[in-house]
Amino acid sequence: MMLRFTSILFIALLYSCSLSLRAPSSVNSQIDIIFDLDWTLVKQVDAVVGDDSNYIHVGDEIYRLGDGAVELLDFLFSKQGIRVSFFSGGKFSRNSELLKKIKTRHGNAFDLAYRVLSYEDLTKVSSDEGLSFSKRFKKDIRLVTQDVSNTLLIDDDQRFLLSESYRKNLLWMGETYKHFESFTDITNFSDQYVPLSQEQWQYDRRKLYFIKDILEKSLEKRENFLWAVRFEREKYNFEYNLSRKEMSCHTSMNAFLSVL
Is the pTM of this model over 0.70? Predict the structure, then answer.
């Protein structure tokens, strides 16, 4: 607990100091936000449950839009000086069709995107088939812009980072789980990709609202955007959700209530 408090205090001090040294707003004011798709904005499911408007059909596959996904994209598409791109390990044909079916107040996500990058754009770093997909292929955010000083990748899998030098450009969502409309729908708790408590299930369902809150506050200080993201994300404890037994009701409800 003391170590965590010290870490937060250190980040807060660095963040406050950086504000006094910030560059003029005309310098590097363009911000690029890159979203992963699978397990970040959408989750593949076996069947439609409930409101069909929350689901996207691509061929024989069904995807459930994450709660808050459309609101998050609506918010970003309405902002000047922000470019939204998508970088998914799926094939371009799948990604483009999926994005065209994500409807926002401003149009569909494909038409509004600055860049749509796919499997064909991944950097292959290993041919070892024994390794996981995200260890063999990486996402090079420089394919969106060579100047990554104001570029943020939002992804559920931090292993896709091309190198640790881009750690500051990542907003990792922590452990993510399969989609369940209700916690009572879960029958197999031995599956590592299911939440073990109602608090974890609820927390996972609210994550995109948390992301929106982080971005709203960070964009108010866009000259120090990446620093602000790092500071604002601390209150949501994404990393601490890795330890399922440590996810308390108190922690979950505090995060939930903070964005209501």
Answer: yes
The string of pLDDT tens digits covering residues 207-219 is 999 999 999 999 9
Distance CA 236, CA 246 (A): 14
User: Domains in the chain: how many in total?
Assistant: 1
User: Is 12's pLDDT higher than 60?
Assistant: no
Q: How many CB atoms lie within 10 A of CB 1?
A: 5
CATH number for the domain harbouring residue 74: 3.40.50.1000
CA dihedral (65, 235, 135, 193) positive or negative: negative
Residue 144 burial (C-beta neighbours within 10 Å; 0-12, 13-18, 19+):
buried
Residues 6 or more apart in contact with residue 164 via CB below 8 angstroms: none
Residues 6+ apart with CB under 8 A from 76: 33, 82, 84, 215
Residue 15 lies in a domain: no
Q: Residue 51: helix, strand or coil by DSSP?
A: coil
Contact (Cβ atoms closer than 8 angstroms) between residue 32 and residue 145: yes
The amino acid that residue 115 corresponds to is: R
Encode pLDDT of 171-188 as tens digits.
999 889 999 999 999 999
CB count within 10 Å of CB 159 equals 14
